[in-house]
């Protein structure tokens, strides 16, 4: 396999919890991301799934250099990502772009579509000479399936799905190698969501993009991703190819997640004996000792409270999972 | 035959005036029986929430305007009823829960106070007795250590617990009909599963009618008895859950099913493109002539642009508003069946 374009090792991001106004003191840490390692290869889609508060969006922000990490390393094409400063940082930003979740707040309402999609060229004038800019913007609009004539319209004149296309055009402008997609379709209606997902696959094929695809919708991730990492409370609990995760999930959390997703097939009603989790996700400011998942885990044993399980392949499984009792799921055939 | 629990008959609602008038509901009819779950399925702007608001009598008028139709609760016409009567029915006979529990709860009162309020004003209980009942209600929706939790404020609850608290509040006066407007959309899947199970159980125990408003085809498949699919302020298809998924008769219903990437999808295979519905839903102030779905429909022919297809019976209890509904229903869906499911 080729070299990863993005390699992340033991990434940690803690946010301090403070008390007091004048004498501000730190009383704790929110462990938003707590030791995440992953590799993203050129042209592939790596899905990061997890429930709200698991740290997947913080991970995206740290990797985009929007907030500094607490510790850990990341390399982009072999170069230290967090050491980049000044011109090197600006130059790197051409290679890695982001598409945000909410198409209503991620576009400036006072700018025209032409200004929004053309803004990357203002910051990186070497990419397109000024005279060429309008043509480039119109090309981009066409690529994402918008009418190039609409270059002078404002975001409010577009629907949610069209706005998300504008956000994608903006991310594509500098011909990046990696696009971080932070829940790009979760705000859209299903029929529109499918249009945007197809667009993302087409663009990947056309431009050889690698996606770090962050989502909570397991159906969407299965459809789009080559490999999947499942996050729970700041760390990755299971990782593997989409096939491995969706047919042979071995971590009890992944199994519970998969069996909680309602399947649009009424004939299965009553035949699925789903793995149900009790309670809510614990606070990342005060995570449980040992295995983070043990408080909700149907398999929890005394060892889980003491010994945090490593993310590794175990005898009965074919891909890494962070569970002492990882084993393939109990599958029931449905005729 | 006795009157159904709730009957919505040819309901029409408009917003705004002049050329900007948006026809939000264009003749919506459905009914719910006791102990039954009716799912109203549709995308944003299809009118599913406006129908529910009109039923509850909480539609803002203006800007909304009810231009026709009837809402009957156990045979009693509600649209012309006095506000006092409707107020009495709300809570006692019909109740509603909303998508965003945080903004539906009052942040400056404790959760217990907000539940107890109903017992004090409607049942004339003392503060102490009402609070004791509020604890029972929180227990009923399985909030752990309810006696302590009752004194907390909404912001101290997690998303799933807030939704439980809202369910407790809506069930306090033992209504016969519960309308749940996207109750789990804001929640994570594991919590969504808990809440849907709870709702289903409470409905069964109390023999309540439940209207579940949602856009999620998966949730609908798990709990609905009957399903009404809405598009552009109309019901385009209505039938029991099993036949809707096995014989979708309206191209819009089929389109929705083809658009959803499924977690169990083994047949389609990774990378194969989804088949989305092309285009956008119509603007409600300029609904197309003929069938409102025809600009997005792959099967549209001349008759579709000229004639509005009526919602008509195409099989036992199966109604669809498409000129060619019989053909589509006979074809069945174009997707592989589920093969394996994870079990305990």
UniProtKB/TrEMBL annotation, chain A:
Q: Which SUPFAM superfamilies did the record assign?
A: P-loop containing nucleoside triphosphate hydrolases
Recorded hits in PROSITE patterns, A to Z, give: ABC_TRANSPORTER_1, ABC_TRANSPORTER_2
Which terms are listed as keywords in the entry? ATP-binding, Nucleotide-binding, Transport
Q: Which SMART domains match?
A: AAA
Q: Which domain of life is it from?
A: Bacteria
Q: Name one Pfam family in it.
A: ABC_tran
Keyword Cell division recorded: no
The record ties this protein, via CDD domains, to: ABC_NikE_OppD_transporters (cd03257)
Database matches in Gene3D superfamilies = P-loop containing nucleotide triphosphate hydrolases
Q: Which InterPro entries match?
A: AAA+_ATPase, ABC_transp_ATP-bind, ABC_transporter-like_ATP-bd, ABC_transporter-like_CS, Oligopep_ABC_C, P-loop_NTPase
**What does the record give under GO molecular function?**
ATP binding
- Name all ABC transporter domain ranges: 6-258
Q: State the similarity comment.
A: Belongs to the ABC transporter superfamily.
What PANTHER family does the entry give? D,D-DIPEPTIDE TRANSPORT ATP-BINDING PROTEIN DDPF-RELATED, TRANSPORT ATP-BINDING PROTEIN
Q: What is this protein called?
A: Dipeptide ABC transporter ATP-binding protein
Query: What organism is the protein native to?
Result: Actinomycetospora straminea
Taxonomic lineage from the root? Bacteria, Bacillati, Actinomycetota, Actinomycetes, Pseudonocardiales
TrEMBL record, chain B:
Q: Transmembrane segments in this chain: where?
A: none
Which family does this protein fall into?
Belongs to the ABC transporter superfamily.
Q: Which InterPro entries match?
A: AAA+_ATPase, ABC_Ni/Peptide_Import, ABC_transporter-like_ATP-bd, ABC_transporter-like_CS, Oligopep_ABC_C, P-loop_NTPase
Q: Does the keyword Endoplasmic reticulum apply?
A: no
User: What is the name listed in the Swiss-Prot or TrEMBL entry for this protein?
Assistant: ABC transporter ATP-binding protein
Q: Which organism is it from?
A: Actinomycetospora straminea
What GO MF annotations does this protein's record show?
ATP binding
What is the membrane topology listed in the Swiss-Prot or TrEMBL record?
Peripheral membrane protein
Residues forming the ABC transporter domain are 6-257
Q: Which UniProt keywords apply?
A: ATP-binding, Cell membrane, Membrane, Nucleotide-binding, Transport
- Highest lineage ranks of the organism? Bacteria, Bacillati, Actinomycetota, Actinomycetes, Pseudonocardiales
- Compartmental location: Cell membrane
